[in-house]
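User: Structure with flavin-adenine dinucleotide, tokens only please.
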Amino acid sequence: MIHKFDALILGAGAAGLLCAIEAGKRGRRVAVLERAERIGKKILISGGGRCNFTNLHCRPENFISANEHFAKSALARYTPADFIALVEKHRIPYHEKTLGQLFCDRTAEDITNMLEAECRGAGVQIFLNCRVHEVQRTTQFIVRTEAAEFLSSILVVATGGLSIPKMGATAFGYDLARQLGLNIVTTKPGLVPFLLGGKDYKLYSDLAGVSAEVIASANHHAFREKMLITHRGLSGPAILQISSYWDKGQSIQIDLAPRREIAPAIRAAKVRNITAARAAFQGILPKRFAERWLEAHAPPNWTNDSLAQLEKHAHEWVLTPAGTEGYEKAEVTAGGVDTEELSSKTMETKKVRGLFFIGEVVDVTGHLGGFNFQWAWASGAAAGRSL
Ligand SMILES: Cc1cc2nc3c(=O)[nH]c(=O)nc-3n(C[C@H](O)[C@H](O)[C@H](O)COP(=O)(O)OP(=O)(O)OC[C@H]3O[C@@H](n4cnc5c(N)ncnc54)[C@H](O)[C@@H]3O)c2cc1C
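Assistant:
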């Protein structure tokens, strides 16, 4: 059986659905092919089930890409306000949690229901349980699934990244890009917890659950947020954020006492000793973590020089993660289809006319906090409006 459409969109995730809505509204006959049994599975699990669907403070600086300018155009033409208008049109209650992050009051299903309704309104046809296994390009794109063949002169690839393979993430989009001669910026897990190894693992892993506000930095980027100790290493927003900038083998730096001084309290104590140091650190860090960290970093003596060293060390604690928890736990895939291959206005590839890549499969990765969905909406809209 052969189905003909004006545009075929592979993947009914955030990017594919927004693209389909925009193209459908322009009168295009659009089909979305989705391998899963329902649309937007990642939307449903996102933000702890409440979907952090955008961020009020979205700026180009919140995105990582080999070309830092690439995302600007799409982000400027589809803003958080545009998506909020859609959410409000559907009377979905939402709230700002922190730092401009908008979440549904009820569940993420409000967002998938909204997208489904918009698709229906725009006449978009969604084919579920429809895994694309082959794409061939003649004068048109022929897309093959187990049950049928689809034909179109426009193909939009919105198949997402590699994170959470348990949910069906595959390398399909990257493989297709390679097959069609496009360059891929090396992919790696992003927004992912770190693993600790050796003595660091032995020292801290039994403190799992303990958290502290820190400044975590790597590769000239720093985030002041919570760090969480886990059974296997480190997590929490500060760590997830810098993980996207980290490469294997590199060290990270942690300021355990942002904008605070520890040494003065030790100097002011009646006796300068480990008890005074513990008390000073416990004023800033959770008790067990303070004790454990001091066990490993106690100065050789309590001279002013040693205290200055201790202070420095607490603000510049250097750790070398043994690795990350990988795609199984990563919220996103960093890297992807090289933006040099794409028009920043439409997301169409420069080499293959009628072929578009949008969403996470592209080498644009957002910070934690609703930015990845904003990129999915914005890149989807950019493509959809040009079809
Ligand atoms: C646990 C978790 C929580 C997250 N929370 C947030 C959050 O709160 N806020 C935020 O901004 N971001 C969050 N993210 C990131 C966000 O979910 C993604 O960046 C976003 O979903 C990417 O959208 P996409 O449309 O590009 O890809 P996806 O949403 O991954 O959609 C791709 C779709 O393509 C389908 N597909 C793949 N291969 C094929 C094939 N061969 N044939 C047919 N269909 C195929 C997949 O089944 C999938 O439905 C979270 C991610 C995870 C893993």
